[in-house]
């Protein structure tokens, strides 16, 4: 009797599993067919900004396209630019720590010596806040006076960066005359990259000693703040509002990208239409930072033991793996494009995000979702589909591989010894400072590798 019951139960489970798979296939087929229909009812399902679409996408029922059409306004001349600035409801004023309070240190650091207590306090929101945000006095990342004067006039910015000669500037396409007059196109470079660019493309110098490659104004950052080029590149990427303090709007794109869409169309689509102040693309493969960390280790994007330590700190501090119960569609962004209005809250988020990159690993995709989690829903942002991200750009390969030795380290023993060339001396110091909690019992969540490409 028991054997018959068990067999019946197994059959019931198999039938239920088959029915569930058929239901998923039916939903996928229905979604694909309905999105080709002109029906108003079906347009709600296919609208990427609708609640129905977001529900289906969250549960994995939406087929993931590589590229998809972006619903931009066709003529940039017709776009109405909002007047004034978006008002923040929580954080209204933000100031920055400029002097390192740790007097025992011999040389200033760009990110300062932020203590664990200061880090914890920075996540407690109030109307007026003072936080670490890079650019410590004498900490590096200095601009020429001619460039400082030039960027003072820049209210609308398209920014990019090239460090350690990994790329050459790629000229954007489809830029309207209106955007050419309205936007400053600023390419931030270090000395190595400036020399590399001069050797490989034509650099024009204007009568004010400004350097240009096509539409891009080259902005030299002298005295690189970090040992590792990948971490240096996070300075203009995340702290755009500190480099260009007069800017109200900015669009960051990685140096390997060729922009295909007019920047006014981008601001209208991703900020103004939905009344957003921060927009970023969803990662194609991963939604959990622990999945992304696993992929970084497999692809040797940074030292494996340091990635593990970074993730153990986050897990100890309550950062759970992503699930559909979370309010955001993903904890992992595609960080090659960041679209911002520089409000106090947006600037605060960028500072806190940068502080995590400064303290831990330079893999900023691992820190983004953690900062969102620590702000407890106070920071609102638009995470748009990855297929739109792929339609914004042409991706060009780097001119060469990254050169950091730290990325290839497999064991903590390789870092031992004072003055080890494997250890960064100016960044990631949170990984070498005693953590005020017991991490010995922390076991990271298991990761299911859903994609070979990821």
From TrEMBL:
Residues 95-398 form the TOD1/MUCI70 glycosyltransferase-like domain. Pfam families: TOD1_MUCI70. The chain crosses the membrane at residues 12-33. Keywords: Membrane, Transmembrane, Transmembrane helix. InterPro entries: TOD1_MUCI70, TOD1_MUCI70_glycTrfase_dom. It comes from the Eukaryota. PANTHER family: ALKALINE CERAMIDASE-RELATED, OS06G0724300 PROTEIN. This is TOD1/MUCI70 glycosyltransferase-like domain-containing protein. It comes from Populus alba x Populus x berolinensis.
């Amino acid at each position: 009797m028991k054997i018959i019951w068990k067999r019946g139960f197994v059959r019931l489970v198999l039938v239920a599993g088959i029915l569930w798979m058929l239901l998923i296939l039916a939903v996928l087929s229905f979604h694909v067919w309905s999105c080709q229909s002109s029906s108003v009812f079906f347009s709600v399902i296919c609208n990427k900004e609708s609640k129905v679409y977001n529900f289906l996408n969250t549960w994995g029922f939406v087929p993931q396209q590589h590229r998809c059409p972006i619903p931009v306004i066709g003529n940039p001349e017709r776009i109405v630019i909002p007047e004034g600035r978006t008002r923040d409801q929580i954080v209204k004023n933000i100031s920055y720590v400029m002097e390192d309070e740790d007097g025992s240190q011999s040389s200033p650091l760009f990110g300062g010596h932020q203590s664990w207590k200061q880090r914890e306090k920075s996540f407690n929101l109030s109307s007026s806040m003072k936080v670490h945000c890079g650019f410590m006095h004498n900490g590096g990342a200095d601009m020429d006076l001619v460039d400082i004067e030039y960027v003072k006039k820049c209210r609308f910015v398209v920014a990019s960066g090239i460090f350690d000669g990994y790329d050459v500037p790629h000229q954007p396409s489809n830029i309207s005359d209106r955007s050419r007059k309205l936007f400053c196109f600023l390419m931030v470079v270090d000395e190595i990259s400036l020399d590399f660019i001069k050797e490989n493309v034509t650099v024009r110098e204007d009568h004010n000693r400004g350097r240009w490659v096509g539409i891009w104004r080259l902005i030299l950052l002298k005295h690189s703040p970090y040992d590792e080029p990948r971490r240096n590149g996070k300075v203009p990427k995340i702290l755009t509002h500190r480099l260009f303090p007069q800017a109200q709007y900015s669009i960051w794109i990685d140096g390997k990208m060729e922009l295909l869409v007019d920047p006014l169309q981008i601001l209208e689509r991703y900020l103004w239409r939905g009344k957003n102040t921060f927009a970023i693309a969803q990662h194609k493969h991963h939604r959990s930072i622990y999945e992304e960390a696993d992929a970084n280790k497999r692809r040797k994007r940074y030292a494996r033991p340091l990635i593990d330590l970074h993730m153990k700190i986050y897990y100890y501090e309550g950062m759970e793996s992503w699930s559909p119960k979370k309010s955001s569609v993903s904890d992992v962004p595609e960080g090659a494009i960041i679209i911002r209005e520089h409000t106090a809250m947006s600037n605060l988020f960028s500072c806190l995000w940068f502080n995590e990159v400064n303290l831990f690993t330079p893999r900023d995709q691992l820190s983004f979702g953690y900062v969102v989690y620590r702000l407890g829903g106070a920071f609102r942002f638009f995470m748009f589909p990855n297929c739109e991200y792929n339609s914004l750009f042409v991706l060009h390969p780097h001119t060469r591989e990254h050169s950091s030795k730290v990325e290839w380290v497999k064991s903590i023993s390789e870092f031992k010894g004072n003055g080890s060339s494997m250890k960064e001396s100016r960044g990631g110091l949170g990984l070498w400072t005693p953590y005020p909690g017991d991490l010995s019992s922390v076991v990271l969540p298991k990761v299911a590798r859903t994609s070979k490409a990821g």
